[in-house]
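Quarterly update from the structural biology core.
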Amino acid sequence: MGHAKTSYVCLPCRASYKQPYPGDHERRCPRCGEGLVHVGSAFAAPRRRDDEGWRVLTVLVNAGIRFPRSCCGGPGYRPRTLREVRERMTYAARTGEPIARALVRPELP
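Predicted structure, tokenized:
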């Protein structure tokens, strides 16, 4: 029985790859040679031409948000539009809540 696979993403290439995890070596993008970012096993990549989807994903990954599989089958709420990201970042700035926590909050008060 093989190892379970998880997702890695290359933001500049807009590409995702399923690879075995864990591993002690750094994974590199086969297209550009940049390091891949581990995003988790519940990750679903946007289509390559989906500019907004990749911009949202870039904000999430740079904020440290990942997509682990939880006991209920998914990673929980993640914003899907730039409008949702802007609303949550504005909320975080206004309240002092960490950006990463505001981004994964299902509802804003």
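The first strand starts at residue 5 and ends at 10.
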